[in-house]
Design a protein that fits this description.
Xylanase_inhibitor_I-like; globular; 4-stranded antiparallel β-sheet; Cathepsin D, subunit A, domain 1; 34% strand; mainly beta; disordered N terminus; 20-stranded mixed β-sheet; secreted; 6 helices; Aspartic_peptidase_A1
Length: 435
Amino acid sequence: MANTPNFLRLISLFQLFFIAPSFAQQSFRPKALVVPVTKHASTLQYVTQINQRTPLVPLNLVLDIGGQFLWVDCDTNYVSSTYRPARCRSAQCSLARSTSCGDCFSAPRPGCNNNTCGLTPDNTITHTATSGELAEDTVSVQSTNGFNPGRNVTVSRFLFSCASTFLLQGLATGVSGMAGLGRTKIALPSQFASAFSFHRKFAVCLSSSKGVAFFGDGPYVLLPNIDAAQLLTFTPLLVNPVSTASAFSQGEPSAEYFIGVKSIRIDEKAVPLNTTLLSINSEGVGGTKISSVDPYTVLEASIFKAVTEAFVKASAARNITRVAGVAPFEVCFSSENVVGTRLGASVPTIELVLHNQKTIWRIFGANSMVSVSDEVLCLGFVNGGEKPSTSIVIGGYQLENNLLQFDLAASRLGFSSLLFGSRTTCANFNFTSTA
Ligand SMILES: *[C@@H]1O[C@H](CO)[C@@H](O)[C@H](O)[C@H]1NC(C)=O
Ligand SMILES: *[C@@H]1O[C@H](CO)[C@@H](O)[C@H](O)[C@H]1NC(C)=O
Ligand SMILES: *[C@@H]1O[C@H](CO)[C@@H](O)[C@H](O)[C@H]1NC(C)=O
Ligand SMILES: *[C@@H]1O[C@H](CO)[C@@H](O)[C@H](O)[C@H]1NC(C)=O
Ligand SMILES: *[C@@H]1O[C@H](CO)[C@@H](O)[C@H](O)[C@H]1NC(C)=O
């Protein structure tokens, strides 16, 4: 794509403009869509559900906030009368930024056709990528008015990539692929927004039980009648110019969402850090990203050391006793002197200071401490070692019960802070359908 002349890109945009209206089938135009997001107990993956194919089949998919697109296993039980492979050099293929062209040397079936546009589906949990054809099929999800799910709506030519069954290795049982919500034009948020002409925004509210994700703008109402869209603080989303995928072509930017953490404070005291690590360098290394596929926040080794030392010190000042680590956590405490509060265990507050001193993402006990037994609480951060590609990866446990809104058009992230402070949780969307 890097070498594609500009006029070709213009043509593909132009074609998109004319293709888009045919994606949506019905005259009813939803304002937003809603899907459940359930945490899988043993793998700690967040699993969502959408319906695909004709006739429709409910699919469980691992939710990947920074994932490039939807990919599904087409080798096992893929039956659909509306499956269509995308051809090489088609408008769909350039929308997917692909210039590759694939053939398949066995009988034609979904995932195996000649002269098809090739993509690289990525299992971002195991960091394994393979090649697969770009295809279109019907997708159906529930619309919402922000309060309840409403009627189901269909996108007739939803783009996704096929993968082989082996790519599912490492994913929760019963899952048939991954749902990528990243920055690309064929990730779920952009395709839904163009199919239904709504704002290029989506929101994710993860829970240790059943959370929720919305495509489109708020309200995002959680019981008892709290609109989390009204609770947001905003910070710019940053683009990493170098892809962070397992396989990619030169010049491809990352599909993941980065934010600018400028410093970290613990109980309002700045932690000494090598600030070079906090920005993204020209090779795409460094910075801070948001990830639903890392169960816990991962910190580059020197940041991990500085943050945990400061946390242990601030805990000692609160008379909280350190005990031996419990894998994967290195820093654990006796729960003896830790009292429970509305915001979770009363431990030092970790603050991520963002683009200015007033914009702070606060991590309270409910998001920092993992209870590993009745007696032991661990700091839910893990050591990412030296020279990881991203210095700070804010993982799933730290995102739970915080509503995050990704606004692609304005390139900004809205974050609610811990919803317990507003007397609600991410498990409080009313999934009773009014359709
Ligand atoms: C693709 O073309 C090759 C060579 O013409 C042929 O052997 C093969 O069966 C074809 N595959 C499909 C899936 O049609
Ligand atoms: C609408 O979608 C939901 C959730 O995917 C599903 O449970 C329900 O059966 C669908 N309703 C209809 C009428 O297809
Ligand atoms: C800070 O990190 C950068 C990037 O890894 C490294 O090149 C530099 O030597 C570090 N500086 C210090 C003082 O450790
Ligand atoms: C600290 O904890 C110990 C052991 O639980 C207790 O005996 C002591 O009184 C506490 N001190 C303070 C200052 O809270
Ligand atoms: C959930 O929504 C349904 C349908 O609007 C409504 O009847 C029900 O009272 C709601 N539940 C709660 C707990 O408010």
